[in-house]
Design goal:
alpha/beta, Jelly Rolls, TIM Barrel, 2 domains, 12 helices, 19 strands, about 25% helix
């Protein structure tokens, strides 16, 4: 059974870096961060690698990697190679308690996690993993220090340590299970199609329509007819992506930044029209950091996500209540930006109006970032042998343990969506036989695959890509309608 995670924003408050010490051990001479992290009971407390005090063996060691060219793209600590490279965090507790510790890292490496009155060892494999309940430490009331170091030279990466009081673990796991929903329908669907289409789009030739003209003009019946030809059991539709413009009249968005919604409820129309054909709708959601105007209204810093979380939950609450059972799922991109976050609170908002709604966060190359989710986002995952033949497709171990094995990948290119003028769709990247075999192999193990097709502003896709999906339908669905 997987661990459930409820993370307090306060529990991951900023820890100001102090001068690095020379020793690799926990000595009185080690300089500690100026501000301690207050560990909360009944929650998962996250010690981020990039907020640790680092003792470096060389000036180049222990570098905090970021992506997107932004501080919120906090990835992990790298160049962790020497036993002299130690990361430490000052923590405070209101009472003495024993804490289970998960370690999110990649090796191969042998590491030691130390506290004020003990330590434990961890053998990490080469690939990223969440080493759940790797060990435990007793932390006294008041201030103390937790540290991690290599036992011998290696080349390792560290994302974080997650701490939860052992006495509270059972209750948190229970809440995680209560939030989760059955993924049986998604597994049984076998495959679906995905479209990153929206305000950012372009026609095959010429200029793009102004917002929200492309929403007003979109031909839903024609689109649904095309999806029927693919045999898809569901559609993943991008509510937002390169820019943050939501194709429905969501008042919470208008309160954050006016002019970012449409009067036409395209999402509702899609859900209704697809639903009549037995096809479910999942929304892909991008939080909007590439859109500067939107992002300024939502983001303070990686250490202060209160506004971000409040705004997000307001949008999800309203959208969830609006669509109810018509909306089958959410896929949240850039999970690394959310983490650490109050995932239980976000999960409840995401399931507003439909507790059976499925949710997923994109971990990129990292392990699962929370157990308050239902299925693996699976960017670039084409299926594998990690689940048993004839199973329900749930990962029983590894980085995504407990989640339904789902993959999302591009059928054609040059990207996931069309956001430049005069874009020529390339591909498809798979032959009809190859695509069909992928689905057969994956579905035999309960896994499900999502093919992303590029679509122009007028709803046209690459005819060759559509031919591939027609072949998949014939091979997988046969005479089904």
């Amino acid at each position: 059974m997987t661990r459930s995670h409820r993370v307090s924003v306060a529990a991951v408050a900023a820890v100001l870096a102090a001068a690095a010490a020379a020793s690799q051990s926990q000595s009185a001479d080690d300089a500690l961060p100026a501000a301690a992290i207050h560990l909360q009971r009944d929650e998962v407390n996250v010690l981020m690698g990039d907020r640790a005090q680092c003792t470096r063996s060389t000036p180049q060691a222990l570098v905090a990697k970021t992506v997107w060219g932004k501080p919120e793209g906090r990835a992990w600590m790298e160049n962790w190679r020497s036993p002299a490279d130690r990361m430490a965090w000052a923590v405070e507790t209101a009472e003495e308690a024993r804490y289970e510790i998960d370690v999110l890292m990649a090796g191969p490496a042998e590491v030691e996690v130390s506290g004020p009155a003990g330590s434990f060892m961890l053998h990490a494999g080469q690939k990223w993993n969440k080493y759940a309940t790797a060990g435990s430490l007793v932390l006294p009331k008041g201030s103390s220090t937790i540290s991690i170091r290599l036992r011998r030279p290696a080349d390792a990466l560290l994302k974080s340590l997650e701490l939860i009081a052992i006495d509270d673990a059972k209750a948190i796991r229970s809440r995680e299970q209560q939030l989760r929903a059955s993924t049986a329908w998604l597994s049984q669907a076998k495959y679906g199609v995905m479209f990153q289409w929206g305000q950012w789009g372009y026609p095959k030739h010429g200029p793009a329509k102004p917002w929200p003209k492309m929403i007003d003009d979109f031909d839903v019946p024609r689109f649904v007819s095309m999806v029927e030809q693919t045999g898809a059991g569901y559609v993943i539709w991008s509510a937002t992506w390169r820019t943050y413009y939501f194709p429905a009249p969501i008042k919470a968005i208008e309160r954050i930044l006016p002019g970012r919604t449409a009067e036409r409820d395209l999402i509702g129309e899609l859900a209704d029209a697809l639903g009549k054909k037995g096809i479910k709708l999942i929304l892909y959601y991008h939080e909007g950091h590439p859109d500067a105007a939107w992002w300024r209204r939502n983001w303070v810093s990686s250490d202060d996500k209160q506004k971000f979380c409040d705004n997000l939950c307001a949008v999800l609450d309203e959208a969830g209540a609006r669509y109810g059972p018509r909306l089958a799922g959410w896929m949240f991109d850039d999970g690394m930006l959310y983490y650490p976050a109050p995932f239980e609170r976000i999960g409840k908002a995401a399931k507003a109006g439909n507790p059976a709604r499925l949710i997923s966060y994109n971990p990129w190359v990292l392990p699962r970032l929370t157990d308050f989710q239902d299925f693996y986002f699976g960017e670039g995952f084409h299926g594998n042998t990690s689940t048993a033949l004839g199973s329900a497709g749930i990962f029983s171990s590894g980085a995504q343990q407990g989640l339904l094995a789902h993959g999302s990948f591009t059928l054609d290119g040059p990207d996931w969506g069309i956001y430049k003028p005069e874009t020529k769709i390339t591909g498809p990247f798979f032959t009809p036989d190859h695509a069909a075999e992928m689905v057969k192999d994956a579905s035999a193990r309960g896994q499900v695959l999502s093919f992303n097709l590029l679509m122009y502003e007028d709803g046209n896709v690459n005819p060759k890509s559509l031919d591939v999906m027609r072949a998949v339908r014939k091979a997988i669905r046969g005479g089904e309608k």
